[in-house]
Design a protein that fits this description.
Blueprint: H1 7-32, H2 37-62, H3 64-111, E1 120-127, E2 130-133, E3 146-148, E4 154-161, E5 166-170, E6 177-182, E7 188-194, E8 197-204, E9 214-217, E10 229-238, E11 244-251, E12 258-261
Length: 262
């Protein structure tokens, strides 16, 4: 018994078949025109990268011990490099200190008078207002020795002496008093502190004293060695009614780093 076909159903089927043929033709034409190459390559690249990532993950999961060992070795290498850098920094600091010490000794040899020789060198340590040397009785330090900086300028003298350290009496401290003179001996007097200032006092009116003069130790009265630079005259105070005049000093020595002891 045959089945009767509805004309409408036949028309719909023919229309769908025609649309399918058109779509297939469009796809075939686009493919022939190479318009699908870029999407196809992108999909292949993404798929390839994904495969590599999956392979790496599989290797790490399959070999956890090797991954941990590789990480441990990397950390060891980093720690070794950090240790080398730390040792290099320490060596550089020691070299810098030794270089400063040598430079100080060379400057003292070239600046001092014939026959003068530094006993030793030391580094200055400061704690508040107190300045100390890293040498003491065991090193042969005694009270009253002169202390100069790297340029041969007078810092002060050794005050109290301990077994391993010594206190510095700085020029300008209360109670510090020393015979002095200008370079060339044109004016003679005494250097000491007065309030917050350091003065070159008891200079006779008949002696020449001017702003800019350099004041040095005179070496008399059993004091410090002669010729150590103390400071420079910034101002001269004169009183016609007085037989002496006074110079206000600017101290020149540095109070840090390495010093020489005489």
């Amino acid at each position: 018994m045959g089945v009767a076909l509805d004309q409408k159903d036949v028309a719909v089927a023919v229309r769908l078949w025609g649309i399918g043929m058109v779509i297939c033709g469009l796809i075939f034409g686009l493919d022939m025109a190479s318009l699908f190459d870029w999407p196809r390559g992108l999909l292949e690249q993404v798929g390839g990268n994904s495969d590599r990532v999956l392979q790496q993950l599989e290797q790490r999961v399959a070999n956890p011990v090797e991954s941990l060992l590789a990480l441990y070795r990397r950390q060891e290498r980093i720690a070794a490099l950090e240790g080398q850098l730390s040792r290099a920094a320490v060596d550089h600091n020691e070299l810098y200190q030794l270089r400063g010490k040598v430079a100080l000794l060379e400057s003292q040899v070239s600046r001092t008078q014939p026959g003068m020789k530094a006993l030793m060198v030391s580094e200055i340590y400061t704690k508040g207002e107190v300045m100390v040397l890293g040498v003491g009785e065991v090193d042969g330090v005694v009270k009253g020795l002169a202390i100069t900086d790297g340029d041969g300028l007078l810092v002060g003298r050794v005050g109290s002496v301990g077994r391993y350290i010594s206190r510095i009496e700085r020029v300008g401290e209360p109670g510090f008093k020393i015979p002095a003179q200008t370079v060339g001996g044109g004016a003679k007097g005494v250097v000491f502190s007065k309030g917050n200032e350091v003065i070159f006092a008891d200079v006779l009116q008949t002696e020449q004293l001017a702003v800019g003069d350099i004041v040095v130790t005179s070496g008399i009265d059993g004091g410090l060695p002669a010729g150590l630079v103390i400071g420079q005259v910034m101002q001269v105070e004169e009183d016609a009614a007085s037989v002496t005049k006074t110079g206000l000093l600017d101290l020149l020595a540095a109070h840090q780093g390495w010093v020489a002891i005489w």
